[in-house]
Write a structure and sequence with these properties.
Low-confidence stretches: none
Mean pLDDT: 96
Largest sheet: 9 strands, mixed
Shape: globular
Length: 449
């Protein structure tokens, strides 16, 4: 039995269910072939999720309790996207209404550590967590407090001063313990969001060696001191283009490789998913997953004004990159803001973006972008613990394919047709075949018992 779920451009078909003829023995090839072989098995799947920024909770906070619950369910329930991963920034980011930290200026001993001003964001996380049951949760800082850095700014890069490395490592622990007191368990952390980026918002520069020595000499000892050494450490948290050299350089420092559980990466600036296969070949024991991605807010071509009606190509970008990354050993996918307002914020630096769910704070209208549906063609069907299996196709271009086997043995095949013409597909799964058509600019998920 095969169930098909289809989302198509220029239609109201979102996750529309359709039937596909069953697989049959002795089935030959066709003009366009998608081949699945479940005997060839690869990485385990972690899941999907998004970031709990200040902007996200401010956007959703304008809704009534009932409408907010619908958005939460749309992401975290089994009938929604079934998200099971969360990323929580440490204090503020570009998607905040301003810069703040959890300590007063110059408090090296962190005696004034206080997260109370950030409590509503954590409550929003808990509302989402409670719908799903549990979330694998990662924390990530954008910058230490300004007075800990050589440029005395939270923004514009700068570096962590040697005299504050111990205090900054303790800061992570304080945050993890504070979240625990609120009923939130932190499973993993990254050392620094985008450690090679000098931004107009919170940012801090670490070389590969800086990050490695900080992990080995300060962060891991602090976690151990607080009894938090089960917290997983994730390296890099920056773009795919640097993931090979960063891993090589950081793991060249004695004692670091065994302390690092995983490698996080972003999708900006680089589409080379094959870099991930290289890292997997070098360090096959490391978890590897995307920790951030987003698209810029669309603008009306005639008025120039922001338009969050969405662009279909945004969804196609998500689909294409998820497929390419997963086919190169990525194990999970964490989007950026869960939702944003109609301006693509709030953001105190004007870094406006589109989220899969946009909320108009004046009309209280909730809009679902194409990216929401494209993500769902993976997250709704590929279960945590699923195993990627071989999937290939012989289309000349613009056809992207991926296959997994879920823990319940159901096979999941995702086929994205990014071309402007239909594709007549011959699908072969473990030697058995069937035929069907994939529509232009569409994505299809097959569930095969």
């Amino acid at each position: 039995m095969i169930k098909a779920f289809i989302t198509q451009k220029s239609s109201n078909n979102y996750f529309k269910e359709a039937g596909i003829r069953p697989l049959k023995d002795n089935y030959g090839g066709g003009d366009c072939n998608v081949v699945v072989d479940t005997k060839q098995r690869f990485q385990k799947h972690m899941g999907f999720g998004a970031a709990f920024t200040e902007a996200a909770w401010r956007a959703v906070s304008v809704l009534s309790d009932g409408e907010r619950k619908k958005v939460v369910d749309a992401y975290f329930s089994e009938n929604g996207l079934n998200y099971n991963i969360a990323r929580i920034p440490v204090h503020t980011t570009d998607f905040s209404v301003g810069h703040r930290t959890y300590v007063e200026y110059g408090d090296k001993e962190l005696k004034t550590f206080d997260t109370s001003w950030d409590g509503e964001r954590f409550e929003f996380y808990k509302q989402c967590r409670d719908v799903h049951g549990e979330l694998f949760t990662i924390i990530a800082p954008w910058s230490p407090p300004a007075w800990m850095k050589d440029n005395n700014e939270a923004q514009h890069g700068g570096k962590l001063l040697d005299g504050y490395k111990k205090s900054w490592a303790q800061y992570y622990c304080k945050f993890i313990e504070d979240l625990r007191s609120r009923g939130i368990t932190v499973d993993a952390l990254t050392v620094q969001n985008e450690p090679e980026a000098v931004q107009t918002w919170e940012s801090c520069i670490y070389t590969a060696e800086d990050e490695a020595y900080f992990i080995r000499d300060y962060l891991h000892p602090a976690l151990k001191e607080h009894g938090l050494d089960s917290t997983k450490i994730v390296l890099w948290d920056h773009n795919r283009d640097g993931v090979i050299r960063r891993s090589l350089s950081s793991f060249a420092i004695e004692g670091v490789r065994e302390l690092v559980w995983g490698i996080g990466y972003h999708w900006y600036c680089c589409d080379k998913s094959e870099n991930l296969s290289t890292v997997h070949a070098l360090y096959p024991e490391k978890a590897m997953f995307l920790t951030e991605c987003c698209v810029e807010l669309a603008h009306d071509s005639t008025t120039g004004k922001a338009s969050y009606a969405g662009v279909w190509e945004h969804g196609e970008r998500y689909g294409r990159q998820i497929i390419n990354d997963f086919n190169n050993y990525s194990q999970g996918w964490i989007d950026w803001n869960i939702c944003l307002d109609e301006e693509g914020g709030p953001t105190y630096v004007g870094n406006f973006c589109e989220a899969p769910v946009m909320i108009d704070k004046k009309t209280k209208t909730v809009s679902y972008m194409s990216s929401y549906y494209y993500i769902g063609h993976f997250s709704k069907f590929i279960k945590p613990g699923a195993t990627r299996v071989f999937c290939g196709n012989d289309a000349p271009s613009l056809l992207y394919t991926l296959a997994y086997e879920n823990p319940d043995m159901k096979k999941i095949v995702v086929i994205q047709n990014a071309s402007s013409r239909r594709r007549d597909i011959t699908l072969t799964v473990d030697g058995k075949g069937t035929q069907f058509t994939v529509r232009p600019h569409s994505i299809m998920t097959l569930v095969i018992d």
